[in-house]
C-alpha cells in the first residue's frame, strides 16, 4: 500500500524522536540503526528510506530542532499585536530546561556534541546552528524596523546593531545553558536585562512592549 505524504512525515518524526530519546542518554558511536529502528517500532529498511545513515539522522535531528524553534520565534516576530510577547518568548526558552522534558533531552544530546560526535558531523551541525542564528538575527532586525515604522521604537536606533546585540546575547545564553554553564534558576533573574532593552528601544519610556 502506498504511503501518504502525511504518513511518511509522521514516520520520519517518529524516527527523529526515537533517536533523541536514545542519544540523550547514550553516545553516538554506541547507538545503532537497529536500536533506533526498534525504538521507533520500524524496520531498518524504513529507517534507510528516510535517512542515509546515522550521521544524516543526527544532522537532520539538529536541523529539525532549529526549525521548530525558528517557527515559534517567527510567529512571535511577524505578528504586530504579539510584539509584546518577545521577551516572554525568550524567558520561556531559557526556562525550558527545567520545565520541558523534550528540551531536557535536547540539552543532554547537545552536551555530548563536543566530545562524542564525529568531527565532520560536529562541523556540519555547527554550520546548521550558525545559519539558524543568522536567520534569527535577521528576524529580530525586521521586528525592530517594524516597531520603528509603527512608532513603538525609537527612530534613531541602529537596527542592524541592536539586532546583533539582542540575538547574540540570548543565543549566547542559550548555548551556555546547553553546556551547563548557567545556574538552573537563571531564567528567573532576567527581567533586569529585558528592562534594559525596553529603555533602549521604546519610544515611550513608560511602555513595556517587550516583556510579557
TrEMBL record:
DNA-binding region: 32-51
The keyword DNA-binding is assigned to this record: yes
InterPro entries in the record: Homeodomain-like_sf, HTH-type_Tx_Regulator, HTH_TetR, Tet_transcr_reg_TetR-rel_C_sf
One function term, GO molecular function aspect: DNA binding
Stored Pfam families: TetR_N (PF00440)
PANTHER family listed in its UniProt record: ACREF/ENVCD OPERON REPRESSOR-RELATED, ACREF_ENVCD OPERON REPRESSOR-RELATED
The protein, known as: HTH tetR-type domain-containing protein
Annotated source species: Cloacibacillus porcorum
Lineage: Bacteria, Thermotogati, Synergistota, Synergistia, Synergistales
